[in-house]
Amino acid sequence: MLRSSPFVNLLSSPASFLILKLKPVSGSHSAATLASDTQNTSNRTTFGRRRAPVSIDLGVQEPGAKKGSRRLTFTEAVMYSLKPKVVDFDTVWVQLRPAIIDILNLKPMSNVHWHHKFSDVYDICVSIPTPLSERLYGEVKACIMQHVKEKRQQINEVDPDRLIQEYNKMWEVFHEGAIFIHRLFGYLNKQFVKQKRCTDLDNFAQYAAFLQIPDVKEIGCLALEIWKEELVKGILPQLVQFLLVSIDSDRKGNFPQEANVVSSVINSFVKMEETDFDVVPETGTKPKARESITAFYVESIEKPLLLDTETYYSTLAQRMLSELSCSQYMEQVIVLLEQEELRAKKYLHESSVSKIISLCQRVMIKAHKDKLHSVCHALITNEENKDLRNMYRLLKPIQAGLSVMVKEFEEYVKKKGLEAVSGLTGENVPQQFVENVLKVYNKFNDMKTVVFMEDGEFSSGLDKALQGVVNSKEFGQTVPKASERLARYTDSLLKKSTKGLSESDLETKLGNAIVIFRYIEDKDIFQKFYSKMLANRLIASTSVSMDAEEVMINKLKQACGYEFTSKLSRMFTDIGLSQELSSTFDKHIAEIKSSRPGTKFVPTQALVLQAGSWPLNAPQLSTNTNQQTAQDVADFHLPYVLLPVIQEFETFYTGKHNGRKLTWLYNMSQGDVRLTYLDKQYVAQMYVYQMAAVLCFERRDAISVKDIGEEIGVSGDYLLKTLRTILDVSILTCDDQALTTDSIVRLNMSMTARRMKFRLQAPQVNKVVEKEQESVANTFQVTQDRKYYMECAIVRIMKTRKVLKHNALVTEIMDQTKGRFTPDVPFIKKSIEDLIEKMYIQRTDQNDEYQYLA
């Protein structure tokens, strides 16, 4: 024992040493003061056999004291020896036992007396020839046992009406005293108890799970265990009954006068099983347990309380349902739950709060959720937000409690949305569609935020409902019109004709358009419409601003990724490069004019557009959608005034970019023609085909439609549509109401216009507004784009996975393609078969399994 003592290890030899410790002369102190004064003393080597303290008058007055006032007197600490010695246990124990009883009763004790008792404990533990730790432990246990039995006798004589108050007083004194006794016997706890409990486990660590830990506890734990076994269990039924009655009275509004006593007694059932103690806290605060085991508390208090709570609230719920409406019932349940939570926190251990609340929710909500669900439809239909919020608060903690509410909410939103977008008529149908959908979205999004507290289930329900609204198909239609309408709405916002919108207002409206865009399933169709309208704005320079166009593209990029907007970004790049190219070409023309005095170069600005990025087709090139138009303009003759500059530009461009092929889009090329034959010199902005037809009247005033067609190289229906656009602005006149190839067209010599500069409309080529969506959706180009995108997605997946089952592959394909369109299963299967034929993937020997071929 001597060698294992931490005190002895501080010295190089068992010699004595001197510590001078100056303290004011101490009178009587309470045990609490002694414990706080010696928190760290248990680790100091100042204990052993000693001489009587000597008072030393240092002749020092207190600062600020008057003359003649008392002087400060200090106690001289004397030399203590840590050397083990022979101890007469009976003699020492006779003096130590009364001190233990005094400490348990929190009687005053001098500081010196406390240190002497601590020294006695140390001397007994390290005594020679044999340490007496085990005997000391047994005597302390018997002493505490006797003390508790006396307390039990006292509590049994107490008036039953005062039982709880008297028990609480005894408990608080005993618990405080047990902590101080634990400190006093700190050396016994460390050297005897812990070694007794851990020696066997350390020697046989591999069998630790099968070894029984010796029934030896630290002194503090031992005292609490004796209190529980010898006193508490004898009066447990009376205590529990009184506590249950007190809590029940609190529920009924009869608040106990000594609520803190009820709380203290209940929590004493937890503190009885403390296994470790903190350093004694400051005066006026309660000691805390580092680790509390609540088994005794649960069996003694919590289980009976839960049974009593279940009975009380089950009966109360049945009565409220029979007397109150559903709305009043929900409000009352919320109040009861809040009160019960506060009550549980007030009286019970923290581990019981969640159990009490869960029990109340089960008996008052879950048991009657069918009744709540039965009124859910009416509440949502009538938009009773207050009741809906109460219902949400009640059903949220219940497993699957919100499923009915979410379903009703989703169906109601979809119903309102379909009512808002059906039967739209007029010229501004796209704007009506967008604004009506946004009204529904904003209304129910606010409802989701305020009533349902941004709950994820309701967010998902709102998204599903609006997705069904946006992608709904009108009667007789096979493809939703949302893509076209949204594209036309954004086109109207981004055109120069938009008036009265500031930059912030415009950005807000574009953000609203993106809200609807996220719900569109066929985003690739929207992309076709949007890119075509963007091309028209860029070519005709009718965009409200390039910044606004970039804002919209950035929003689309955030919603669908870079790949979705890569071509749109390339269109902006082409416009910028074309402007630089035009400036260079103008300088080139200025340089060559002197060498070609007889050649007239019309001022021109050419836009060079990358064919793969722009959704444009030259009418002279035959495609699936413009075969007839290609035949009509196949032999078009460019106006002679444009030939020199066109030929020079081609030479200039091919000289800079060898190997590139230019294809002129005459159907989108425009020019200004000045009408000099009238009193006022009007300027008409027209397309090249219209310009060629008007230039036929330079040498004559009347000519047949057939002759015009032969002269400009245009025939058929396209020729008639081109001339009709010129007749609409009164530059030409015709006597025939129905224009044919035999009609005679005359130059209008008396034409007038409200503006000096005006624009001719482009010839309409199979452009019916209501049917454009249908035609685009079924075009070969959209189908091909989807096919290529699908195949790329399959190859990416298989390259990563190497081997994959059919169902897993279909699921991943759906996830990757949902950002652009929603494919059906037959389309996916056909794409897989095509890739198998192209030897990108192959089937394995397993059923429905594919393997990637490198």
TrEMBL record:
The entry's keywords: Isopeptide bond, Ubl conjugation, Ubl conjugation pathway
Pfam families referenced in this protein's UniProt entry, alphabetically: Cullin, Cullin_AB, Cullin_Nedd8
Annotated SMART domains: CULLIN (SM00182), Cullin_Nedd8 (SM00884)
Family, similarity comment: Belongs to the cullin family.
Superkingdom of origin organism: Eukaryota
Database matches in InterPro entries: Cullin (IPR045093), Cullin-like_AB (IPR059120), Cullin_CS (IPR016157), Cullin_homology (IPR016158), Cullin_homology_sf (IPR036317), Cullin_N (IPR001373), Cullin_neddylation_domain (IPR019559), Cullin_repeat-like_dom_sf (IPR016159)
PANTHER family for this protein: CULLIN
Transmembrane spans: none
Protein source organism: Caenorhabditis briggsae
Source lineage: Eukaryota, Metazoa, Ecdysozoa, Nematoda, Chromadorea
GO cellular component assignments: cullin-RING ubiquitin ligase complex
Protein name as catalogued: Cullin family profile domain-containing protein
Pathway: Protein modification; protein ubiquitination
GO BP terms, alphabetized: ubiquitin-dependent protein catabolic process
Molecular function as annotated in GO: ubiquitin protein ligase binding
Positions of the Cullin family profile domain: 481-727
